Every structure is written in structure tokens, then in C-alpha cells.
Amino acid sequence: MDMNVYVAEWLVKERIAEARAAGARDALLHAHRPPRQPMRVALGLALIRLGRRIQSGRPGVADPLAGAILRPPC
């Protein structure tokens, strides 16, 4: 059974049209999305925040060396 050339051409045109539509949809979605930070930047900022939080000496923060909860004097 031979495939009709006209049908094959029509199928190829349909697939190309679908691919172009999907590409246009993706481009539209990415155009309105703010750019994401690289993973290394996000990890670095998270580690900086963690270090600052550890050094801040907030009340109720457990001291792993003393084994007790530190509270500021009243």
C-alpha cells in the first residue's frame, strides 16, 4: 500500500504548524517571566542568610555546644 504524496505533504505541514505554534507559546510564556537566578547564586544567598541568622544571636536559638536554649538577660 503506497502512501499518497498529497497526504504525506499535508501531514508534514500540520506537524510543522503545530511545532511553530508550540514555539510561539513557549516564547510568549518566557517573555513575561522574570529571569531566574542561577542555582549557584540562589544557594550562595541562602548560605549567607543562614550564616547571618546563626550569628544574629536571636533569643530562643539553641546553642549546640552548651546543649541549652540561650535567652538574653532581662
Tell me what the structure shows.
The chain has 74 residues and is mainly alpha-helical. It has a domain at 5-54. It contains two helices and two strands; from the N terminus they run ααββ. It is rod-shaped and about 80 Å long. It starts with a helix and ends in a 5-residue tail after the last strand. The relative contact order is 0.06. The mean pLDDT is 82.
Itemize the secondary structure elements and their pairings.
Blueprint: H1 5-32, H2 39-55, E1 62-63, E2 68-69
Number of E strands: 2
Report the helical percentage. Answer: 55-70%
Note the main sheet.
Answer: 2 strands, antiparallel
With strands numbered from the N-terminus, the spatial order across the biggest sheet is 1-2
Provide the β-strand percentage band. Answer: 5-15%
Query: Can you write the helix and strand succession as a string?
Result: HHEE
- What is the overall pLDDT average? 82
Features:
74 residues, mainly alpha, two-stranded antiparallel sheet, 2 helices
Task: Please summarize what this structure is.
This protein is mainly alpha-helical and 74 residues long.
